[in-house]
Protein 1
Amino acid sequence: MGVVALLAAVVTLIAPVGGPVDSTGEHLAYSRPDGAGGYRLVIDGRDAPVAASPEPFDVDLGTGARGELVAVYSRRQDSRDVVWFDVATGRERPVPAASRPDRDEGAASVSRGRVA
């Protein structure tokens, strides 16, 4: 286990966690209650720079096409859509193939740039 994952695991043990927890072996992601009725996405012990969610993030950590650390999770707009978050850039974007307005998508997984 890498140092980052170990430290994040310690944070997980002492911080309240709501919802799924995911790890790549070196990185850890989970939701934490924000005190205002919502949840913040936490990656490697730090709040990710994304908007809070009214429900826990169904986060999955994986890799992009170039091996970069990314996370996928769902967001509710009119329907539940899958979102891609690039950890290095702090940018969030919808996954078009999993963002249909007539369907709820969620519980996605990502590896090597492919979302399932």
Protein 2
Amino acid sequence: MVLTGRREETLCKAAPEVSTGCTRVLRFQLDVCDTAQIQDVVGRVWQMLGRIDVLFNVAGTMARKPAVGVTEADYRVDAIAPGFVLTDLNRAFLESGAQGRI
């Protein structure tokens, strides 16, 4: 299992909570709005594990404000950043010749 998140302290707290039944939990600090970090982490995970079976994306801010107050940064995290992650995963699948669906 691989956990990613912006804050190391959150990753350290979450790892024991989600590791039930896992032999190994890897943690990587990652801001999904930073495409260079995404490429780095996807590459490292692929190199270490040889594949990625399932992706749960729970990154986001869920801005709790009127729609007219939602900023570009809010949209970037909630709507655009997940596309960056999927693009890099697709690239890793294609380059490896792996079979699967995203």
Protein 3
Amino acid sequence: MTADGIVETALGQIHAAGTNQGDFLTVLIPPDAAQIADSAEPMRKEGKLLIHGRVKESIFQGSFYRVDLEIRGGQTLIFHLPNRISRPVQGENLTLETEGSAWVCIQETKKSQAE
């Protein structure tokens, strides 16, 4: 984390208010904080982050699809995408768009840092 509150993640930079330079943080993305990126949109608005991955699994859950998205490095993120879209297909490459301001930063305690 930098002095101006910028946190560098594998998915991009976000701003973490109320934290200090050198703090250890856990960054959480709420499962409903993303939507399928508009491929026709030529430029991204400031504050938006793109998450590129491959659909490992897509399950209908009533009002949403639970989508397990495998990102670079093999990590899997879980998202809830509205059921008004076409169901993402297993093995499909998918790009999601999310607001960095929707992410939650949790400051690690000194005890958990030592573990």
